[in-house]
Amino acid sequence: MTTDFARKDRAAFGLSGKVVVVVGGGQMPGDTTGNGRATAMLAARHGAEVVAVDINFDSAQETANLIIAEGGKAYPVQADVAEKQDCQHIFDTVMARSGRVDGMVYSAAVNPPFDLGTNSMTTENFNRGINVNMLGAYHCNLFAAECMQKNEGASAGSIVNFSSIASLKNEIGLNIGIMPYALGKCGLNYITELTAVQFADAGVRANTLMLGPIDSTLGNHDSQELFGHTPDEVDEAYGEVVKLKMGRASTWETAYAALYLLADESRFMTGQQIRLDGGAALVR
Ligand SMILES: NC(=O)c1ccc[n+]([C@@H]2O[C@H](COP(=O)([O-])OP(=O)(O)OC[C@H]3O[C@@H](n4cnc5c(N)ncnc54)[C@H](O)[C@@H]3O)[C@@H](O)[C@H]2O)c1
């Protein structure tokens, strides 16, 4: 397999000619750019045609509009990833419209509502969390990989699943509020490895980007709900979690790490859990 990696004038992390599907590519309403949206915008800046998928169509459309306004190529698709047929619809639509899938980022996630006082959650809400965080990831990994294996060449496609250090460690004990999220992310870590093993000989890679505290609207909102904190207390709590003095990362740190995983430069890497957490999960 030849590359031009050694060329001095080579532009790094180019995604031209690639179609990248960002599931959860809209964002929760708010001022702070979400991880999916930042990744979608950066992939487009590096030449990819981006498909922004979200349950919230207007938000997916907004991501596409931001990309188009910068001179990039993008379009939105609406889907509820808790539904298998919606996941299939995503990839059927992209194959019909763009003809190929080269990258898939799974960024959709929810923390279902719960009662902090009684530490309780309805079974329906619990199941909803698992269905979005884990079952949807399974279907999107499978359907994306099935599209990617049709691509020619030794490096057929790259899947990047956004997980969380909540799947590794937690200091809030048996709080039901974190369960569908943390367990869903544990499942997502495992799904990544299964995808990597099953599709390696088709040239399809799958890696987990394991995020720590990132400054996003959803991250701030959910932390307030889970811990009952004020916005200032959330900042303070995360300040203690992150070991690096810079404090919480922005979603652009996520996007640049995802860009590496999507690009051919990472073509020898698969099945890995890459922590992007400011040292939060370091053992001291
Ligand atoms: N912000 C953090 O601190 C942090 C930490 C660890 C991991 N993450 C992960 O980063 C990812 C993005 O989170 P974010 O904080 O940037 O929030 P975000 O604003 O990107 O919100 C997630 C998106 O998922 C979409 N979504 C929810 N349910 C869906 C469904 N059923 N079908 C389709 N789309 C759906 C939402 O509409 C929203 O646009 C998530 O996977 C999250 O777990 C974030």
Automatic annotation (TrEMBL):
Stored Gene3D superfamilies: NAD(P)-binding Rossmann-like Domain
UniProt-recorded Gene Ontology molecular function terms: glucose 1-dehydrogenase [NAD(P)+] activity; quinone binding
Biological-process GO terms, alphabetical: fatty acid biosynthetic process
Entry EC no(s): 1.1.1.47
Keywords associated with the record: Oxidoreductase
Family affiliation: Belongs to the short-chain dehydrogenases/reductases (SDR) family.
Name recorded for this polypeptide: Short-chain dehydrogenase/reductase SDR
